[in-house]
Amino acid sequence: MDRIDAIVARHADREGPLLPILHDVQAELGAVDTAAETRIAHLLNLTRAEVHGVVSFYHDFRAEADSRPVVQVCRAEACQARGIEAMMPAVAAAAGDRVRVETVYCLGLCSVGPNARIGDDLHARLDEGALTKLVERA
Amino acid sequence: MGYAKQPDFGTPEVRSDRTVTLSIDGREVTVPEGTSVMRAAAEIGGDIPKLCATDMVKSFGSCRLCLVEVEGMRGTPASCTTPVTEGMVVKTQTPRLEKLRRGVMELYISDHPLDCLTCSANNDCELQDAAADVGLRDVRYGYDGAHHLGQAPDVSNPYFLFAPDKCIVCSRCVRACDEVQGTLALTVDGRGFASKISAGTTEDDFLSSECVSCGACVQACPTSALMEKSVKEHGKPERSVVTTCAYCGVGCTFRAEMRGEQLVRMVPWKEGKANRGHSCVKGRFAWGYANHKDRITSPMIRDSIDEPWREVSWAEAISYAAGRLKDIRAEHGARALGGITSSRCTNEETFLVQKLVRGGFGSNNVDTCARVCHSPTGYGLKTTFGTSAGTQDFDSVEHSDVILVIGANPTDAHPVFASRMKRRLRQGAKLIVIDPRRIDLVRSPHIEAAHHLPLQPGTNVAVLTAMAHVIVTEGLVDAKFVQERCEVDAFEDWARFVSDESHSPERLEPVTRVPAEELRAAARLFATGGNGAIYYGLGVTEHSQGSSTVMAIANLAMATGNIGRPGVGVNPLRGQNNVQGACDMGSFPHELSGYRHISDAETRALFEQDWGVTLDAEPGLRINNMLDAACDGTFRAIYIQGEDILQSDPDTKHVAAGLEAMDCVIVHDLFLNETANYAHVFLPGSTFLEKDGTFTNAERRIQPVRRVMDPANGYEDWQVTQLLANAMGLGWDYGHPSEILAEIARLTPTFAGVTWERLCAVGSLQWPVNEANPDGAPVMHIDGFVRGKGHFVVTEYVPTDEKTGPRFPLLLTTGRILSHYNVGAQTRRTANTAWHPEDLLEMHPVDAENRGLKDGDWARLASRKGETTLRVKVTERVAPGVVYTTFHHPETQANVVTTDYSDWATNCPEYKVTAVQVAPSNGPTDWQEDYADLSERSRRISHEPAE
User: Fold this and answer.
1) A91 and A123 housed in the same domain
2) Are A45 and B185 a contacting pair at CB < 8 A?
3) For residue A131, is it within any domain?
4) Are B760 and B354 a contacting pair, CB within 8 Å?
5) B947 pLDDT exceeds 50?
6) How many CB atoms lie within 10 A of CB B847?
7) Considering the domain B300-373+579-766, what is its CATH architecture?
8) Sheet of strand A116-118, all strands in order from the earlier edge strand to the far edge
9) Which of B559, B724, B735, B909 has the fewest CB atoms within 10 Å distance of its CB?
10) Which of B325, B327, B305 shows the shortest CA–CA distance to B317?
11) What is the ipTM of this complex?
12) Segment B764-783, tens digit of pLDDT
């Protein structure tokens, strides 16, 4: 709780401090769990429902910490048109339980799909081999 | 009267001086500027299909069903979010719109259980209506895709359930909770197809959430996703009757929705001027007491309180009661008899009880429960302004810039008004809270008091005088107002008095424990922040200086010019539904109706002529004097209507001794209450659902109460009083409360223009309703005070005699909680006990630790008067040195410990300050055990047939 209090204190003077606080909590603690939601609500004089509504709206905020590497795979229309759906079984097999594969809808590189993202790195023009290799190395 | 839904205009009413004329489907309509196209259409009887719009919340534009075509505008705008413009030409039905709406509807229905025939909203469902309106004939998507069906309902709230599979995620519930109630307990969890209404975090259900069960979400829900359990149980109502809530002094009006004689649900009436369509958990849901198994419906008598009760006929009970009263009068004189009127009963019933006492018993020994709550308000405001009532209507708060709340806890005790106040605060009004406790208004989501002055209980006068000191010495007085509207000599005396250095915040800080700088800042804010309104409750009146505090409040309002227009004023928040009315009706021993002194020969003559009796010119005894006199043997019989003085009045043991000493105690009530343990005659009462009459709320608003079912006991309460009066030989002949109201109007100048027919036609009237104010007076003292010039009163702070010391080092203050009402006779007999099953003692962690007490431990609470045991709640809501409890449960009887100290002017008891000690305990006190025995013994009812 002290860490959450410290994070909230850091952003207390901002207008609309909730999102920056949630980002920092997610980054530092790996999750925004119910206890964190409750504490943040109290400190910002919001209701638990308000904070939970925001937290649950964004997929990047997680209720439980998960230390596995993450590969985000775009499965929006353009990447579907370029065959991403057919590659998904191989991706899942490569990931197993070791890697978390997240579906996202559009990474903004529609002309060069299929695309994936690991951390802040974007990977374009992927075929099944390249994509599974990415997952294996993640 | 059949069942019809309340009209829904889709978006809230807009107030504007400018109007706009437009054409909708070829018909011209003129509406205030800013009105939505949807509402404009509804004003001329149109009904654009809609799902996410309702007029209790702002438009949202999410359901895409209310699309219209507007000439010259591209696309199909949503009518709920499109404001009208001059000359606009709108079409609400075209082939394109039909197609779009059906397409949207198909999507909704493809993920909705098609169990309409067995659904509790069947034939009362906006989704069903919308499907019919748009002509849905087919669902091309089928029902096999991803869906939300089969999810388990959340039934945790005792009164309503949430069925996620019926939910269309229009978020009307979320918005109602935000905008109307201001609790913001609901949210949409997730996004897109996974969106789901949630009452907080993933660990919350409705009961554990921040939800206060006001019912706004249930009212807002277009389907049966949020639905009253009572509708599920009984079916759809067949008729509705508008009536007034019998809980607090806000006076919400409801539609009692009925099926046969079964009340199906209470729904706030949108046209109600006190509540504006809102409600709280008590009025909305907690009406189950009316049919509780504890309800007594047969009259009962007994010769002594050691005997069991004997059920008898009404005739026998009334003749027995009258016989005993007459015998006692013959032996001991009229002044040995008295009565107590009830602030829970109607104006008409209250008027009759005082008429019976004055005209039938022959004494002025009549008092009312307002004695123990707002009698100082009557005295204080009459002295300063000339009338014993608050100055504003509730709408006034929408114009306030600075709100000062002192000794009141509106979110618990007056929740519907609190929601309106909180809405104004969210709009930016500033808040000052003067209260020993950190009440919710001090800090709760989206509300934060600019200043909280956590004073030592009992120092109200010192704090208010210190505020006046700052205002006068820093030159913040509204000199023009004072010069024009107030007695200048009295003002100058007062200004000299408060300016004295001994009244500075710094000098008083050791007494009040309020930091001087904080107090100065609060005073400056109140004096300079724009429209300043003061709201107060029993934390002001229930003190040895209750009347002084009321006058200090009035002084502050006058000095800052905050009287006589919307947004300002002095507003007592009345505890019970008809405290104002009971006071108006002449329930006090020294006053006839309309606050006219009994010693005034002219007034007395008016009543004597009308009633055909001779009235005693001497004021009678107050409740506490009656009890004292009973112990002395000079007061011997009492008729108590709808009040449980044993539990509600201070110093329980003294009350018990007084009652025990009387020869005849007649209790007229719904239940065998605590007072009835000492009674000889029990006359069953009727609930507010079983009678006609009127209640008067805290805004002086007289509102009709209507009978929706027959009295379970056979008679409305005024009829019972009439039976007793006639057995005493009075020959009354009232056929309906409207006749009593006519008598009240005839005899009371402030009620001159009030009639039952008029109230039923217009909904409500705020007294005075007379020649000068034919339609009543929402705001009083506009051009001048009722007494002429406003009168400043010097209010010297005199500490209470109740002092802490080594034996009793803590100060106890008492209050109430949202889910319960007064002695709990009603709310304890409802599912409201889910929130508050017992009285708890709030204690600061430091005090708790010093005594080895943990949260939930049993503790002995002892004062110089008595002791009781209850569980401890460790909390920083109270300051160190202060403890707090509620008085809702007879098992605790918090009033065993309160003292007989009282207000110097009105004898209003000093409930709010008792010196106590708290220690760990492992069981009930001797008093609790003895009383439990007595209570059990005294409540025995013999069912042997009467001879």
Assistant:
1) yes
2) no
3) yes
4) no
5) no
6) 20
7) 3-Layer(aba) Sandwich (3.40)
8) A100-104, A70-74, A116-118, A121-123
9) B735
10) B325
11) 0.91
12) 999 999 999 999 999 999 99
